[in-house]
Specification:
alpha/beta; TIM Barrel; eight-stranded parallel barrel; 16% strand
Length: 221
Amino acid sequence: MIVLNLKAYAESSGENGLKLIKTAHSISKKTKKKIIVCPPPTHLHYARKNSTPNFWFFAQHVDANEQGAFTGSLTLEAVFEEGCKGTLINHSEKKVSFEHARLVVENARKLGVKTIICADSVEKGILFAQLKPWAIAIEPPELIGTGVSVSKARPEVVANAVHKLKAMDKSIIVLVGAGVSNAEDYRKCLELGAEGVLLASAFVKAKNPREWLQSLADVKV
């Protein structure tokens, strides 16, 4: 699968963001590839009418508190009600405590919402695997946004993560984040045993996002 984190770039806000969502949607529809888009909070409402079995919306982050008098909070319940299938947790740019992650995963499980926990090392991934999230994304922070894929720079990290996380729980999906910049990076991640990638700038800031994403969707291993 391909998980697209649109972050808070100028290129992913307003109409720009909607264009990226439509691009990802059309490619998913055409290729039947599982694509998950994580747009800014202002675009989560598009999930209501645009989600399909192969095209899902995830929040980039949710707060751990329940619904109530919590000004500025984005609750898991609100995300679910917008039609989102899940949320990212603990991205390197939005770190949370283990307790925060635990509360979100437990609440998500009750709601039937999926969770992708980001981990900056295999050791952290193993720690978070105890929570039994839907997926764990391994992303060494020093490679994020560099264009240098962890699958090329440190392939042993990917192979080790897959081996150890699957040994703990075969049902946990293992994703690779950090530096995935082209179809070859994606192919390499899959060959190393990962089930998908989590990426951002390579898609959002591509000269031709449609062409770029199509090249990944066409990869077969």
